[in-house]
Every structure is written in C-alpha cells, then in structure tokens.
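As agreed, record minuted below.
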Amino acid sequence: MATESRLKELGQYWDSIAVQNIKWKKTPQGDMTKISDNWDKRRQLISFLLQHPLKEGERILEIGAGIGSTIHMLAEIYGPTDIDYTSTETSPVFQNAMIKLRKRPCHIATIDDLPFGDNEFSRIWLFDVLEHVDPDTRHKAGLEVGRVLAPHGLIFINNPLSPSAHDDAFDFGFSQADIGNFCRDTETVMISLKTHSTFKEIFYQFIVLEKVYGS
C-alpha cells in the first residue's frame, strides 16, 4: 500500500503532467477545454478493444485513466449504450477532468490499494500504466488487480517499448519478465499480444490477459 507521502508525491507529479495536457479557458460562450493526447495511439487502442466487443452486464475499471480519452471515444462508437465504467487516478487534476469533462466516476487510489470489492470487474484497462508502478509494489499491485477482476475477466494492457520522456523517478519500464510475474499474480494467461507503433515511431505492445484459476 502506498504511504500517504508517496500518494502525495505521485499526485503532484501526475498533476504536473495533467496541466500540460488539459487547458481550461473561460470565454463569453462558456468554459472551453483543449485536450492534448497521442491521438494515433488512442485510435489504435480503440481498434484493438473493438476486437473484444462489450457484452451486456460487463463492468470496466480503468486504472490511471488520465484525460479519459479512451472511454470517451469508445462510448461514442457504442452509441447510447450505458457503459458501466469507473476509473482511478493519483492526480486530482486528472480526476477533476474525468468527473467534470468526461462525466465519469474517478477515485483517487493507487494500483496496489484499490477501493473495490472482490471480482467486481469483467474488464480492467491498464494503458501506459504498469511501467510507472514501483518495482517494490508490483507484486501487491498484481494481487490487487487479480482480486477485483472477475473469473474469466480480461485485462487490457498497452505497454510502451520505446524510451520514455517521463521522470526516471516515476518510470521503471515493464519487461517481459515483469509481464510474466504480473500474469502469475493476477492468475491470468496471455491470450493476445500485438506490437504497434504511432506516426512518431513510438512502439508499444497491446496485451490481453484472461483470468483463470490454477495457472
């Protein structure tokens, strides 16, 4: 479990990233917002998610939701369907954007201490998240993710392979060995792995895991 000081440290760092990507401005017509994102990557994430269509009654948890672009774009594609979705963030600025801009619930929490019940979600999204989890807390983080994921639930991961522009104190990389350990801790098996890149030649792995027992 992250200490109060570590949660504050994480919040401050990710707040600094958030203010670079979210620009709020008041105009005579009302509040205006300009969002910066890697839209090419976001489109590819959506195309991968659509290969695993949502079924009735499914619940989604997004850990480290950021600006909420993925759920916003997916909801536009699914139309008026009410997607059962919640999210977590360590940044109060990102949390505010999720609630105010995206109209989606968002909880301040770390991945190793999730405020949800056992087996609560059928899908968990971890997009550009696991590389930011301190190696000392990854085992506990994996156990927590596995705890809240329902049997036969799916975990969707976007794992950067290219060098990061983030502060080294908040970016540790996520190797193939780390993926194996995460599968063990979450009681999942890998059912899909695809490598993709953006226009800027930044490379990623898109990984899908399924929760099984006795793995």
Observations:
- The two ends are 25 Å apart (CA to CA).
- The first strand starts at residue 22 and ends at 27.
